Each structure stands twice: as C-alpha cells, then as structure tokens.
C-alpha cells in the first residue's frame, strides 16, 4: 500500500508499506511496544545505519518512560499491529538519534548501555573524548540529517499485561525496587552465588544512576543516591574479590575513593585486592589509610596484614629458590 500521509506534525511523512490488522491500539503511558526498525540515510543508496532484524532482536520501549527519541512514540502510535510503514523525519526530530543508536548498539554487543561504573554521564563523556565510539554516528552527530525509519509494529502490551523490568520503570518505581535487589544480592552472596549477586547489585546501581543523573550534582538528593550507589558498588566489589576479579575491584574502589576519599570501606577492599595481585606497597598504604579513617578496623586490618606478610615471605622465598645458583 503506497498511502503517503502527513501525521499532523512538522517534518514527518508516512508511507504504509504493508497494512496491519484491527484498530490502532491504545498506546498509553506505561504500555510496552515491541517493533522492528531499520534506520536509513536519505541518500541515493538509502544507506542503512541500524537494523534490528540484522541484530536478530526486536526493539522494546515503554511509552512515557523518557525514551530519548520520543518521536518514535508518535510514529508507533499511528500504526496497527502487523503494519509496516516508512517514516521520513526531518532533522528537528533526528538530532538525538546518534546517542540513542549508541545505546542500542552497545546492548546488541552485550555491553552496558549506561556505563554504570563511570561517574559521568554519556553526554559528558562524548564531549570529553569527542566520539561516540562509532564513526558513522560521530559523522551524524556533527552533521544531523533527515532519516528514514522503516518500522514494523509487532505487539502492544498494556501496563497490566507484562512484568516490568527495571529499564521500563519510572523513577519512583526504580527507587522502590533498589532495596529489593539489594536484599536479593545479599542473599545470593551469602549462598556463595557471587556471579548472580553481581547481577542484582549491578541492576540496582543502574536504577540509582538513572535517577541520580536527573539531580543536581552534590546537592542533598544527589548525595543520598550517591551514598546508596557506593554501598551497592562495594558489595559488588566484594563479589569480585570472591571471583578473583581483582583488577576490576581495584578500578571500582578507586572510582569511589577519587570521589569520596573518606570512604574507609573502599580503601579496605582495594587494599585486599592489591594484596592479591602482589601490589604490596599499595596494599599497605590502603590498610594504613583504613586505620586513619576508622581505628575500629584495627583487628581486621591486623589479620589482613599478617596474611600479606606471610604471602610475601613465601613469594620471596620462592624467588630466592628460583634464582639460587644462577649468579
């Protein structure tokens, strides 16, 4: 069906390529919409930028959940189930697309779309490094262009018809689920399921970061969320130590220390990680800082230093035996 129409909004044209069935479904706030999409440049080749079918997984968004490319909500709201339509959108609607595409590509690559462990937002990182990490998106960011979106509407689920994942929640819902995820992570940690525990902690951290980025840095609401996030990150690092992921533990605890140099728990966990990778001087320095910040940790630190002394002596003896008689 070649039915060209305007949607009553400036800079949008729609062509129905394949008609859908039934009435146009109600797309209310909280509804989850599942669809395939293909993004193309408006050049002679109709160069494809992104294609969910190539990835193999349809896209899902929740209406009214602050999806950055809000024009997609408008486009999808005009479609019937099973309909395939092509939308031409002017640059007034497509300027933010490169940032959205970066997140979608990172998800497809199995990476974290929000870089939860970095203490700056994606926009700040982009300006700091002058790149989104994809050449075509960098070019599109420098010079916004009109785009074609070819969409196929697969399913619309009302809020009561599906179990909402954290990415689909409102900020209020995210804050409510954080302590639940925290408790689940703690239980899994005690059971020795460290990998599963990290996923719970990480999901809770992502919830907090999504809310925190909307607050003004270093003001009371932001600081409250920061404290909650640091606690979860330290729990995450305890799992990393159990999983022998020492360098990642050092990275995350160092992030906390750089922002909050008075956090003795971060120094303590980093000291333990340093000790495991034979960074003796760094470990001793961190343990010393722990005692400066919280003398009540003396017993625990004394125990860890004794273990460190024993391990270093064993290593030194092995080295002496290894090189004995070589000179």
Automatic annotation (TrEMBL):
TPR repeats: 264-297
Domain AIP/AIPL N-terminal FKBP-type PPIase residues, every copy: 30-154
InterPro entries named in the record: AIP/AIPL1/TTC9, PPIase_AIP, PPIase_dom_sf, TPR-like_helical_dom_sf, TPR_rpt
Localization of this protein: Cytoplasm; Nucleus
GO molecular function per UniProt: peptidyl-prolyl cis-trans isomerase activity
Claim: Cytoplasm is one of the keywords in the record: yes
Entry GO terms, CC: cytoplasm; nucleus
Keyword terms, alphabetized: Cytoplasm, Nucleus, Repeat, TPR repeat
Signal peptide range: none
Source organism superkingdom: Eukaryota
Pfam families, alphabetized: PPIase_AIP
SUPFAM superfamilies in the record: FKBP-like, TPR-like
Residue ranges that the Swiss-Prot or TrEMBL entry lists as coiled coil: none
Annotated function: May be important in protein trafficking and/or protein folding and stabilization.
Name by which UniProt lists this protein: Aryl-hydrocarbon-interacting protein-like 1
Gene name linked to the record: aipl1
């Amino acid at each position: 069906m070649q039915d060209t129409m305007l949607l009553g909004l400036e800079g949008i044209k729609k062509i129905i390529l394949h008609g859908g069935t039934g009435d146009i479904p109600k797309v209310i706030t909280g509804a989850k919409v599942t669809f395939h999409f293909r993004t193309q440049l408006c050049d002679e080749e109709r160069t494809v930028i992104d294609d969910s079918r190539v990835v193999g997984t349809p896209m899902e968004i929740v209406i009214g959940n602050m999806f950055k490319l809000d024009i997609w909500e408008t486009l999808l709201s005009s479609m019937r189930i099973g309909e395939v339509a092509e939308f031409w959108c002017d640059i007034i609607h497509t300027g933010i697309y490169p940032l959205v595409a970066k997140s979608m590509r990172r998800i497809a690559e199995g990476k974290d779309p929000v870089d939860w462990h970095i203490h700056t937002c994606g926009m700040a990182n982009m300006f700091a490094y002058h790149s989104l990490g994809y050449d075509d998106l960098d070019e599109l960011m420098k010079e916004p262009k009109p785009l074609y979106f070819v969409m196929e509407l697969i399913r619309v689920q009302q809020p009561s018809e599906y179990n909402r994942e954290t990415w689909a929640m409102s900020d209020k819902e995210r804050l409510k689920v954080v302590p639940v995820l925290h408790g689940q992570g703690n239980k899994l940690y005690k059971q020795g399921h460290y990998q599963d525990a990290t996923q719970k902690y990480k999901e809770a951290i992502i919830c907090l970061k999504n809310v925190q980025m909307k607050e003004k840095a270093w003001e009371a609401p932001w600081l409250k969320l920061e404290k909650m996030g640091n606690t979860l990150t330290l729990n995450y690092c305890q799992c990393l130590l159990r999983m022998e992921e020492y360098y990642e533990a050092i990275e995350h605890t160092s992030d906390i220390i750089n922002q909050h140099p008075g956090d003795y728990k971060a120094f303590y966990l980093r000291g333990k990680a340093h000790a495991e990778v034979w960074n003796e001087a760094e470990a001793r320095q961190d343990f010393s800082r722990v005692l400066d910040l919280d003398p009540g940790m003396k017993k625990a630190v004394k125990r860890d230093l004794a273990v460190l002394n024993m391990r270093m002596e064993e290593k030194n003896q092995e080295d002496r035996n290894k090189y004995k008689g070589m000179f």
